[in-house]
Write a structure and sequence with these properties.
The complex is a heterodimer of chains A (95) and B (103).
Chain A: E1 2-10, E2 24-29, E3 41-45, E4 54-59, H1 61-65, E5 76-85
Parallel strand pairs in A: 3-5
Antiparallel strand pairs in A: 1-2, 1-4, 2-3, 4-5
Chain B: E1 2-15, E2 24-29, E3 41-45, E4 54-59, H1 61-68, E5 77-82, E6 85-88, E7 91-95
Parallel strand pairs in B: 3-5
Antiparallel strand pairs in B: 1-2, 1-4, 2-3, 4-5, 6-7
The chains are: A mainly beta (95), B mainly beta (103).
Chain lengths: 95, 103
């Protein structure tokens, strides 16, 4: 699992079966100080996240397990909204 | 599995039900010399690890589901152990000796 920041929503009318009605979000993986790490990705949302939210994601096969029914073709899912990362240094949360 | 250093806990109120009652830690994977390598990872703690601990980071879903005893949980990364030290040949590259204390 890894940290990310929601940058936008993705609208797709034609989707594979099982993905209908699922909210897709554009996410930038980030480090604990919210600096970008690697390329953007499209993730399926399970926690009512929205643009600007600091979230954590699960990738690979486990992403599809976040959904019900779970055998759907996704490889990235938002599974939590981060309130705080207690690193002992400067705050990770932007406000 | 990877060697990693615990950065600190991740707090989340809104989360997938499979994560309820699981402590999440942010960890930094390390290379063979103990330097940071690759992106930070969030893992479920199964061994009461804490900030600064050197840990064994497992990133594989089947093992993660065994450790957390949840079928079909969307959990992929689990801290599976706390490392006391790593001996590579004649050198102790991690552990108390590496941090300047007693081996």
């Amino acid at each position: 699992m890894y940290l990310g920041e929601v940058r936008g929503t993705v609208v797709a009318t034609r989707k594979y079966e099982g993905l209908e009605g699922r909210k897709l979000l554009l996410v930038q993986p980030v480090d604990r100080r919210r600096r970008p790490v690697g390329p953007m990705e499209v993730s399926v949302d399970t926690v009512q996240a929205g643009p600007g939210d600091f979230v954590y994601l699960v990738g690979s096969r486990e992403a599809s397990l976040a959904l019900d029914p779970w055998f759907v073709p996704v490889d990235s899912a938002i599974v939590g909204i981060v309130d705080d990362v207690d690193t002992g240094d400067e705050p990770a949360r932007r406000g | 599995m990877l060697l990693a250093r615990v950065i600190g806990p991740v707090v989340a109120t809104m989360k997938h039900p499979a994560f309820h009652a699981h402590k999440l830690l942010l960890v930094q994977p390390l290379d063979s010399e103990g330097a940071p390598q690759g992106p930070e990872i969030i893992a479920v703690d199964s061994v009461q690890a804490g900030k600064g601990d050197l840990v064994l980071l497992m990133r594989e879903g089947n093992g993660a589901r065994q450790i957390t005893a949840q079928k079909n949980a969307p959990i992929r990364s689990v801290i599976a152990g706390i490392v006391d030290r790593v001996d590579a040949g004649a050198r102790t590259t991690f552990g108390a000796a590496h941090r300047g204390g007693e081996a």
